[in-house]
Amino acid sequence: MITVLSGGTGTPKLLQGLKEIIDPSELTIIVNTLENDYFSGVYVSADIDTVLYTMSDLINDEFWYGIKGDTFITHERLEEIGCAELLRIGDKDRATKIQKTQLMEKYGLAKACEIQAENMGLTCKIIPMSEENSEIKIVTDIGELEFHDFLIKHQSEPEVLDLKFSKVSPTEGIIEAINNSDAVIIGPSNPITSISPILSLDGVREALINAYVVAVSPIIGNDSVSGPASKFMKALDIDVSSVGVASLYQDFLDTFVIDNDDIDKKVEVNQIINKVIVTNTIMNNLDAKKNLAEIIIDSIP
Ligand code: GDP
Q: Cα 64 from chain centroid?
């Protein structure tokens, strides 16, 4: 069994490779829920839906958000009638979100995800990191912003001074999943807003110390491959590099995969993490995704 900790862009790329080389029924994917919120009356769990769509080959992998080939009739009509929405939710994607909202209100988020995964014919387990509502605030030079306001309305442009998260409880079964896994993979996801929320759940760090954990750096050189990770790391005084990411995971990480471009950092990373693998980590095609997935699986003792 393999447990994967996931956000909504970098790790799903790796999942596309992993599901080609191992039986998806071997996978438990624990997904960040920090940014979940209601939009236009529906519950939006963007990272969970991205993982659901990735595993069922429906994902729009240009944006790592929504369903490929989706239409936006409802979104456009909402705008026409003076109800413009911040998120661009596609029609089919909205159906998923409506169903999830209804299931969640009846059974809770974890069961809702389980039912949706089953409906999509998936054999992997997709577990939201928490069933509780969480809040994230980005403290910037123009004031305190909601996550999606920062990301979409302000296009991640304001200077970030600090981040505030609320503390939530882990979903039942997460610690057991980690304890029962041959390996835990931390994909190249945003270490601040996707991975640290999972790491900060009660019992997770302790469970990881006793597991074989392998992570891929989302930072290459001195910047993130995409998204605001580098901005968030800077705000928290963490070195924006694979060395900085290594320092965040050093208490439990066994193997760290860094990019070929960071070969000059190998010695420094090695002072923090026992085993360092240097390879291509840019997953811009299926072969690259499969190669990286294979290297990770081969590293499992
Ligand atoms: P979010 O929920 O959209 O923020 O997505 P994630 O947290 O899953 O992923 C964002 C992180 O993935 C960013 O920090 C990127 O630098 C990293 N990332 C995206 N694509 C790649 C890739 O192909 N290779 C590597 N190494 N990192 C990537």
A: 11
What the block records as the tokens of 239 is: 């070195």
Ligand 1 contacts CB of residue 17 (under 6 A): no
User: Which residue matches tokens 């003792």?
Assistant: 301
Q: Quick: pLDDT tens for 158-208.
A: 999 999 999 999 999 999 999 999 999 999 999 999 999 999 999 999 999
Pocket test for ligand 1, best of 225, 248, 256 (most atoms within 8 A of CB): 225
Confidence of residue 135 (pLDDT cuts 50, 70, 90): confident
Q: What is the Å distance from ligand 1's center to 78 Cα?
A: 31
Q: How confident is the model at residue 224 (pLDDT cuts 50, 70, 90)?
A: confident
Q: Kindly report the CATH number that applies to the domain delimited by 174-299.
A: 3.40.50.10680
- Average pLDDT on 202-222 reads 97
Q: Which residues pair with 136 in a beta bridge?
A: 165
Contact 78, 87 (CB under 8 A): no
Q: Which CATH superfamily is domain 36-121 in?
A: CofD-like domain (1.10.8.240)
